[in-house]
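Good morning,

Attaching, inline, the backbone tokens for the sequence recovery test we're adding to the shared suite. The designed sequence is right after.
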């Protein structure tokens, strides 16, 4: 050690080296200290700039440091950017390879030919709520080329439990524009035609008109929950030969295993389907329309249509509470998943139909031969009753057809005997003993029976024979033959039928 110190004091190079090392260490230490001081200063400055929990929050102060932009500004920017991209894509400025890659799974399933048909298709969706929005979204994601959306309503807070793409930012905006704006961000090349309108029979020709290039609609989707508009749409499409599929009621339903696609004549256990089918049959449409429906039956503990609260009645005329005159003002419980499944089933059907993919659903509930047999039985019954009361039954004609028989059996009495509830060996008969001039004999050689639909009841054949003997021939009062609940049920059904007849 003692020998090293003199060497250090006498060695100029060694002194310079040590000095350099020491200077470097001091410089590094100073630099690190300076960086730590700057970081500490910036951190505290940032913390001081953020309002405390007990202070008003000014989002602009936070944004100065790179935080989220104001919600309104961001939404406008995204909407403008998406709209601009969609416009360019519709004009052809979008890579075809990217489109095919996005539709790759549909392409291998439907084949190139099937996908090409879908991409050229023009589909009209009437009603863009829970069912219609999911059908629209599925069609757009699958590449359907042209979509016309028709709905008068706006997105509400209560819509968000079942709408396919709506967000809180969309509340208060028309449903059709909400769908277009959101779906353009997914498939910008799809062409949309939005009609913020109520579908009506008077406007049907314009609303279901061909696309601006002259292409007729390949399919129409009925996702309307108003019975008058629904019937008008289905009748129009049926008359004009426009392919259409209708969604029946998803409200109060909860069992996805009970959802079916089939002919409207095969739909059961659904009030909306029953009312629609009944009204259509009056207009001469009894089958040939595919529908999505649920066979789920109501039961204890299950959701039901809720009556309007009493305090709402106190506010004034109930009709004023609806969005439009004659629209329902009662609360329909809806589990958000069920409209989605109905809408996806509808879209699935449309895609298979347009692409030509094989599929097989529940067939039409054709019972024409049975109705013709029941009509013949009714003809014989009327002749026997006329003969019993001393009238000449020769040439007696009843003013009913097999379609009328089918309507009474299926739509008025649900395909069951009003007495026993049995559904086999059915027959129709007068409910009350005929009185007065019930046969028109003014025309020679022609006896016209004045029998009316509202006078008929559905029984089994055995029950009909007993009814003929006791009521129609012997004239016993109905109260002596049937229990009170049966008589009340018949009266309710006849009252319903009279109301429906007023709407014909």
């Amino acid at each position: 050690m003692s020998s090293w110190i003199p060497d250090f004091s006498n060695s100029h190079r060694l002194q310079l080296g040590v000095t350099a090392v020491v200077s470097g260490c001091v410089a590094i230490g100073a630099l690190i200290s300076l960086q730590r001081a700057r970081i500490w200063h910036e951190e505290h400055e940032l913390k001081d700039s953020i309002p405390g929990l007990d202070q008003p929050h000014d989002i602009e102060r936070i944004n100065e440091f790179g935080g989220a932009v104001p919600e309104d500004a961001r939404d406008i920017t995204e909407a403008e950017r998406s709209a601009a991209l969609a416009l360019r894509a519709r004009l052809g400025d979008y890579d075809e390879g990217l489109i095919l890659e996005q539709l790759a799974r549909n392409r291998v399933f439907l084949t190139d030919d099937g996908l090409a048909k879908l991409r050229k298709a023009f589909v009209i969706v009437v009603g863009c709520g829970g069912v219609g929005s999911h059908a629209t979204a599925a069609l757009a994601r699958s590449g359907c080329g042209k979509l016309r959306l028709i709905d008068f309503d706006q997105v509400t807070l209560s819509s968000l439990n079942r709408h396919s793409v709506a967000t809180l930012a969309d509340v208060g905006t028309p449903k059709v524009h909400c769908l277009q704006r959101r779906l353009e961000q997914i498939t910008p090349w799809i062409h949309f035609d939005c009609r913020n309108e109520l579908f009506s029979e008077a406007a049907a020709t314009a609303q279901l008109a061909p696309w601006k290039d002259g292409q007729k609609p390949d399919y129409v989707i009925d996702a309307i929950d108003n019975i008058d508009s629904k019937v008008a749409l289905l009748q129009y499409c049926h008359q004009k030969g426009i392919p259409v599929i209708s969604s029946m009621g998803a409200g109060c339903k909860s069992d996805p295993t009970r959802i079916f696609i089939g002919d409207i004549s095969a739909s059961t256990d659904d009030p909306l389907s029953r009312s629609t089918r009944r009204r259509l049959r009056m207009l001469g449409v009894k089958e040939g329309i595919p529908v999505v429906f649920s066979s789920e039956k109501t039961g204890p503990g299950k959701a039901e249509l809720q009556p309007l609260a009493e305090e709402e009645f106190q506010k004034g005329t109930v009709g004023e509470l609806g969005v439009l005159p004659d629209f329902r003002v009662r609360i329909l419980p809806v589990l958000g998943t069920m409209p989605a499944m109905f809408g996806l089933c509808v879209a699935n059907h449309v895609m298979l139909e347009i692409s030509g993919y094989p599929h097989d659903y529940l067939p039409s509930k054709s019972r024409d031969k049975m109705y013709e047999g029941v009509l013949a039985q009714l003809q014989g019954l009327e002749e026997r009753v006329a003969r019993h009361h001393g009238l000449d039954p020769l040439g007696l004609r009843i003013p009913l057809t097999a379609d009328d028989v089918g309507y009474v059996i299926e739509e008025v009495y649900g395909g069951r005997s009003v007495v026993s509830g049995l559904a086999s060996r059915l027959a129709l008969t007068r409910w009350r003993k005929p009185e007065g001039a019930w046969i028109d004999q003014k025309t020679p050689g022609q006896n016209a029976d004045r029998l009316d639909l509202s006078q008929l009841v559905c029984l089994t054949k055995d029950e009909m024979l007993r009814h003929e003997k006791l009521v129609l021939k012997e004239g016993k009062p109905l109260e002596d033959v049937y229990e009170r609940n049966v008589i009340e049920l018949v009266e309710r059904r006849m009252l319903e039928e009279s109301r429906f007849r007023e709407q014909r």
